[in-house]
Amino acid sequence: MVGSIKTMNHHGNGWSAQNCNGLEEKLDELRSLLGKTDGDPLRIVGVGAGAWGSVFAALLQDSYGRFREKVQIRIWRRPGRAVDRVTAEHLFEVINSREDVLRRLIRRCAYLKYVEGRLGDRTLFADEILKDGFCLNMIDVPLCPLKVVTNLQEAVWDADIVVNAVPSTETREVFEEISQYWKERITTPIIISLAKGIEAALEPVPHIITPTQMINRATGVPTQNILYLGGPNIASEIYNKEYANARICGADKWRKPLAKFLRQPHFIVWDNSDLVTHEVMGGLKNVYAIGAGMVAALTNESATSKSVYFAHCTSEMIFITHLLAEEPEKLAGPLLADTYVTLLKGRNAWYGQMLAKGEISRDIGDNISGKGMIQVLNIILTHYLQIL
Fold it and tell me: Which residues does substrate bind (predicted)?
């Protein structure tokens, strides 16, 4: 859960003048680089409202949302997903146990809506919950209130910065639709992709397609305007202000200004030019996590066995990075930490444990992001090893 009332007040409305001035300076710098004039706000939209997408948008809203004349932050999600009774009841438990959240909802006259949804016949929808500061799949962590848009065209048509937070399996489809709304654009947007995962193409030779490449092909936005941000980021822990870091990777033009804009005291953002390596490793770690779960279950949580497995993973990562880039960055910092934290915690590690224990079959777990990548990577690596 997010911290106490004192923490929330600092997080939301208790900023000092010094903090506000520093944030406004960073905002003004980015606005200037984008050619924004007075009266023309910087428009940022998050596409996708899962846990990490919601937290990322909320971090920006918490930091910069107070400068309403200079920036507008909104989030898009698919409309119409009804919340079941169990989820609604749990939502109420969270609301009623948190005095700061309860006061906020009463002040915004939103609490009555939840009373109707809880006690009456009215259906409560996920976009309403997100708008009032609750992510559907992270309901224990109240977010700041966000402007929610359920029409994709309305969300993105004039956006200056688009944050891709949909899964890699949906990235191509979503951005092919977005490209239809950008045909008349004069300015070129910046896209920051949070997606982790890859696809394989067999022609002309087997090769990997990353989410940023999918976006480039779907929209025609030049690669220098498409960046990847990744790191050891567990969404609920990031929003709880646990210390974390990440790397934003891409061309020189935008990565350093964006790293400065996104950086916060508890969320340190570095920058790096090695886009492909970071993006592929961001997906590959999900495969390693399945194996880590299996090793943990089969060795009764042996620290020695898990460390040997981690050493093998890092050796393979080094081999793959040299296949993908002529001068890859060393596996250090957020890139390696992202692998480490995924091996420790998450759905992929859980899936590996359940497989090893025989408690689920291999046919279960279609939403496990590492499962589909195993075959993809096998095709690519087989091709390269044959050449070598």
Answer: 196, 347-348
In CATH terms, the fold of domain 276-387 is N-(1-d-carboxylethyl)-l-norvaline Dehydrogenase; domain 2 (1.10.1040)
Q: Note the pLDDT tens digit of each residue in 251-265.
A: 999 999 999 999 999
Q: Tell me the C-alpha distance between 331 and 316, whole Å.
A: 11
Residues in binding site for substrate: 196, 347-348
According to DSSP, the β-strands at 226-230 and 71-76 are: unpaired
Distance CA 198, CA 202 (A): 13
pLDDT digits (tens, 9 = 90+) for 95-144: 999 999 999 999 988 888 888 777 677 788 888 899 999 998 888 889 99
Q: What topology is assigned to 5-80+148-273 in CATH?
A: Rossmann fold (3.40.50)
Q: How far apart are CA 165 and CA 177, in angstroms?
A: 15
The amino acid that residue 329 corresponds to is E
Q: Binding site for NAD(+): what residues are annotated?
A: 235, 347
CB atoms within 10 A of CB 258: 21
The C-alpha torsion from 163 through 167 and 170 to 172, rounded to 10°, is: 50
Residues of the chain with CATH 1.10.1040.10: 276-387
pTM attached to this predicted model:
0.83
Helix 347-357, helix 275-298: angle, nearest 10: 30
Give the separation between CA 346 and CA 353, rounded to whole angstroms.
Answer: 11
**Phi, psi (5° rounding) for residue 174?**
-65, -45
End-to-end CA distance of the chain: 50
Report whether the peptide linkage leading into residue 206 is cis, meaning its omega lies within 30 degrees of zero.
no
Q: Is residue 285 annotated as a catalytic residue, yes or no?
A: yes
Binding site members: 196, 235, 347-348
Average pLDDT, the chain: 84
Intervals of CATH 3.40.50.720 along the chain: 5-80+148-273
Contacts of 220 (CB under 8 A, 6+ apart): 179
Annotated catalytic residue, options 260, 285, 345, 357: 285
d(C-alpha 316, C-alpha 332), whole Å: 14
Q: Which residues of the chain have pLDDT under 70?
A: 1-21, 119, 202, 205-206, 324-334, 361-388
